[in-house]
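Researcher: Here's my situation. A collaborator sent me these components and asked whether they could plausibly form a single complex. I don't have experimental data yet, so a predicted model of the whole assembly would be a useful starting point for our discussion.
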Amino acid sequence: MSVLRVPVTAADHRLGQDDAPVTLVEYGDFECPHCAAAYAIMRTIRKKMGDRLRFVFRHFPLTQVHPHAMHAAEAAEAAGAQRKFWEMYEILFGRQDALDDRDLVRYANSLRLDVRRFEEEMKSEKYVPQIRQQFQMGIHSGVNGTPSFFINGARYDGSWQVDRLLAVLEAAAAPAAPAAPVASDEPGEKDS
Amino acid sequence: MTAFVRREATLSTSAVHNANTAIPAGTPAPGFSLNSTPDQKVQLSDFRGKPVVLAFYPADFSPVCGDQMSLYNEILSEFHRYGAQIFGISVDGVWCHRAFAEARKLHFPLLADFEPKGGAARAYGAYRSEEGVCERALFVIDGEGIVRWSYVSPVGVNPGADGILEALEKLGSAPEGEAK
């Protein structure tokens, strides 16, 4: 019954080809342990699905239970503004034990970001409105916790352990004949 | 607001796909008086004039973060935009509710449908007598005490909030002046 209210656009953080037969959207929270588990699973899934999968990550910070979640999401956006969203995403999910503001700056440094710009954008809360907007639209789409998944726009309530999710994604990929893969330098596309 | 217009039309539309017992839209909401704390009771009738959301759920402390009650807690401001009051209801006792609310930092009342056990849930057709717990059932009640939307989710599936918000939206402007 629950469907994605906001279609995936170029404004989203996407990995994979835009013409992939399956789009998997995750609403996640960098401080949520289940999302960290899902992160590892997403890596495996993306590897196995290859060009047939487009993966999208949207923010759903549960700020009442996860005090660092909003700042972590902002840090990912600030890194994204410098074309390093996915790199920051990896660090954050790998270091859930260390997400305070000083840690975030450290990660920005390790990614060789323009740290002054990063810090300014963090201080001015530049990305808070868009993160809140994503959260709100997530709610209206039926996001019911973290992580929440949508497969080709429909909320997926089943197991997201590798085998099960992979089977579901394979099935979703099947009906469309494999489109001629567009040559691209890298499977990873960064945001805009 | 006309409370009776949709009565028959909605009888068949409440999306009760796995348990056909939940009282449907158009039904007057059964009253109840349940403890929200060890020494406070909440009566449904106290909330006449504003929309009320009842979220029955099986048990406190389900082992996930971002569980159903935590989700509603995150979006209380959305409910308040419609002038609505939300209550979580399970058969857990007040002390258990208190511990759960503290652990999850919940800022809305949890009601204990404890004695007689599941009495309110039964009245709403939202009781699983085999297990002795509430269904995962949602009810949106208008300011005149009429159920305007109900939904029973598969018990393992957190229904989210989209259906509630849609139902609140359909109620139209909240009967109380609310700040938008």
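Model: Some features of this prediction you could bring to your collaborator: The longest strand of chain B covers residues 147-153. The longest helix of chain B spans residues 94-104.
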